[in-house]
Amino acid sequence: MKPQSLVVLILLTIVIFLSSSTIAAGSDELKRDILEDILSQDKPGLFDDYGELQLAKTKMQTVIQGMDSRDVTSTTKAWVDISLGIIDDFEVMVNVSESSDPFDHLTAIEAADRLSMSINKLKGYPTAERNGIPMLSELALTRFYRGEGKFFEQAARNTDETKVKIDYEQNSSIAYRKGSMPSEASRMEFEWRRDKRIYDRDMKRASEYINAAGVQRDNAITPSSGFFGSNFMGILKARDSFEQAKGLYEKHKDKELKNVKGIEDEIKDAYQKLMLDTLLRIVIYLLILSIIVVILWKDFKRWGDELDDTRLGEELIV
Length: 318
Description:
With about 325 residues, the protein is an all-alpha fold. It folds into two domains: about 15-180, no CATH class; about 205-305. Helix content is about 85%, strand content about 0%. It has twelve helices and no strands. It has helices at about 5-40, 45-50, 50-65, 75-95, 100-120, 125-130, 135-160, 160-180, 180-220, 230-250, 255-260, 260-315. Helix 1 (about 5-40) packs parallel to helix 4, helix 3 packs antiparallel against helix 7 (about 135-160) and helix 9 (about 180-220) packs antiparallel against helix 10. The termini are far apart.
């Protein structure tokens, strides 16, 4: 073999050896980095409430530790990052749901829906799926949905405003269904559909009463050639129609009542004006009647006096 060829062969051997060492060292380093990421995720509060997530973390650690360094690749890091991200996002979601504000719980449910998508993505990695890591996260998420179902069910029980109650009942039904509780989901769905049917019916009737009250008020304040008191009777009908609508709004504690308060004020003003007008007319009629009675009384008195004089004259003649 020529000296030049021997030198080339030696150099190639060195390059191959160094390359192999670099790859092995890189895999070892990646494995160490992944394990450090797993071990650094310490969430005692979350893990106490959701032991499934701690088990998922322990399972990840066991799987990575048992893998040969050469098998730890960027794909491995990808599914581990997804799983660790699920745990991080789960903690944020749980913290939001600890609020007593239903709006925060809606935000938490939206976060849960995004977590569900991440879990489905995690299922696409055979190693993670084979070791049940997505399943553990899914179990924790299912329990979370159940808790939200109970929260909104209780919130529905504690509110008097029917419109809000319907929303809470619907949210409860959806959360129960996502939490794999079909019986509770069906029960809450029945309740919100029943309450919505009654609410829609009553709100339709209330709207009809309000429209009728407006028409009756307009007719009452318009000069009429009808019989005396027809305008006043009209405003009484308008007031009765509004009271019917008001009763329905109060029944459901509906905020729409505030929007129609102006109609009530207008009806009250018209009622007072027509009441005064009616009383004034009655006084005038009574005054005229009194004058007529006085005139008639005087005529009768004069006629009586004349009759007495006539009788007295007849007696004197006799």
